Amino acid sequence: MMPDTGCSDRPPLAGGRTGGAHSDDGFLSGRITVRQPRRGNRASIDAVLLAAAVPAGPGQSVLEAGAGSGVAALCLASRVADTRIVCVDADRALCELARENIALNAMDDRITAVAADITASAADLAAAGLAGNTFAHVFANPPYFEAGTVRASPNAAKRAAAVGERGDLDKWIRFLVRMAAPGGTVTLIYRAEGLARLLAALDGRFGALRVLALHPKAGRPANRIIVQGIKASRAPLSILPGLVLHDGDGGYTAQAAAILRDGAPLAPGF
Question: Which element (helix H / strand E) includes 200?
Fold first, then answer.
């Protein structure tokens, strides 16, 4: 039986006031409020963990690919003052929703949402305001699954966020390496079982790779990984001590709570 890509795999972080086609959801203990589709592509704790891993500093330029409704970018902007972030997504409806969320959180002067296809030509990307080799940091939560390997959601937006065609991961990495400045970092969150595929896509493009395993509980196998690297570096790969998300009672561990509720960064070097 094929695994299911439904909601149990990527649960919503926090519920909020609902009405119509969208819900209002709080992240970082309410520091960030976003409108999301009630059905479809909804952000989970993955977005918050990803944002916490990006090593951006004040005033630096950052790009997120596949930004959806903008949750990760908003979490990063909340943590790092004066960061300039560009959110890219091919889904124009989600891109417009990201713009609404950016305005809702009064971050119009720091975050820009751009509707663009990551597979577009360099000329078309530049025309959309996405000049290559310019971003100090790039990050993404690419689709975790390849088509035909899972039972995909019937919802088109959810399906597009979770399932890509064979070879799509390489397209994501090619876009990210094109956008990153020399010496810039890439940060990705992915399913642990896809680590070999992800490392193969990064090979020769980003080096000094660091792999952080995310464990649902102590003693349980990791189900997510965060991988970070430096453009064109030839430094070797490092496997770092993992992060345990839940304690024995099902609550967040102290380190996970500091990230998910208080907006703390992952420690330098994870």
Answer: helix 195-202
Confidence of residue 149 (pLDDT cuts 50, 70, 90): low
Contact 211, 195 (CB under 8 A): yes
End-to-end CA distance of the chain: 36
**For residues 155, 158, 160 and 161, what is the CA-based torsion angle, rounded to 10 degrees?**
180
* Confidence check: pLDDT of 74 > 80: yes
Give SS3 for 267. coil
Which domains does the chain possess?
Answer: 7-260 (3.40.50.150)
DSSP state of 52: H
What pLDDT shows up at residue 134? Answer: 97
Tell me how far the alpha carbon of residue 246 is from its chain's centroid: 20
Give the three-state DSSP class for 192.
helix
Of the CA atoms within 13 Å of residue 228, those in its CB half-sphere come to: 23
Q: Which pLDDT value is given to residue 14? A: 47
How far is the CA of 30 from the CAs of 52, 58, 74, 81, in angstroms? 16, 22, 12, 18
What are 80-116's pLDDT values in tens digits?
A: 999 999 999 999 999 999 999 999 999 999 999 999 9
